[in-house]
Amino acid sequence: MRITFAPWGETLAELADAARRAEEAGAEIVWVPELHRSAAVAAAALAQATTTAKVGTAIQLAFTRSPMITALEALDIDELAEGRFILGLGTGVQRLNESWHNARWGKPVGHMREVVRNVRHFVANAHTGDEIALEGEFEPMNIRGYERPHAPTRTEIPIYLAAMGPAMTRLAGRIGDGWISHELCSPSYLAERILPEINAGLEKAGRERSEIDLVVSACCSVDEDPQAAFDRVKAHVGFYASVRTYADFFEFHGLGEAQQAVIEAFRAGKGADYLGDVVTQEMTDAITLNGNRERVIEQISAYEGIADAVKLSAPTHGLSAAEIRKGQDEVIGLIAAIKGGTQ
């Protein structure tokens, strides 16, 4: 099972430096999200800061760009990374797409299927000058008289799909080169809720399990003082527990009442980043990695045999920049201890 990492930085320079240090520690992929930064720009920065680790988006929003722009960005980043880029795509939620980006939502599974098809086709053929004529309900693509004058580093760039719900997870099994979990995903949830849907998608497409890379995301708080590790991650859990959309996830872990307490505190006026005092140790233990190095390494080992890679990230919600840096340094040190790299 591979160890990968999602770096944090207050500036792009700090983000790139954290990725470089994680690579030296032994991280095999460094990932960037899309919310406060453009995933494509951040990935380009990491591509130039690293030399051996793959660089991936986890995730880039699929519906807020045209598939052609997504494909062009992927080709450019893959060139910068010398063939190390992974395009991770996700839908985001409906309100984000429609209200923030004025983007079409429609039927997410069908829409995502067409985006992936178009990106793959463009990456493979844009340099040939051949006509591109793809029909579709959401993303028809008709391009004539176009020839990209830059030779692609690769004509196939891996596309991973982020998915939590069953239909999108099955789609990842059908068409994805990889699957990326939500930031909170326990071994039991992965085994009992995610893998059956992945396998159903694989079976539908006549694919083997070896044809998809499963990347589980794990928020990780490491400290020799267990209380400090808990204190650093509890607001992160509170942030996600405040979202009613995740009710099934928390109910699965027997945390329905605990989540409801967080929701009530949120409704009473507490900010989403500052709900940690309502979060219990039981909640953090169920859905995050936290404790000293030995305990966290044991928690990581629980994913063996069901995930192909773990994407570690330090908690960020409700913390100052200095506190996030300390937590991130601890995670990079953990990676070095596991992989034998340098810290």
UniProtKB/TrEMBL annotation:
<keyword id="KW-0560">Oxidoreductase</keyword>
<feature type="domain" description="Luciferase-like">
    <location>
        <begin position="10"/>
        <end position="305"/>
    </location>
</feature>
<dbReference type="InterPro" id="IPR011251">
    <property type="entry name" value="Luciferase-like_dom"/>
</dbReference>
<dbReference type="Pfam" id="PF00296">
    <property type="entry name" value="Bac_luciferase"/>
</dbReference>
<protein>
    <submittedName>
        <fullName>LLM class flavin-dependent oxidoreductase</fullName>
    </submittedName>
</protein>
<dbReference type="InterPro" id="IPR050564">
    <property type="entry name" value="F420-G6PD/mer"/>
</dbReference>
<dbReference type="InterPro" id="IPR036661">
    <property type="entry name" value="Luciferase-like_sf"/>
</dbReference>
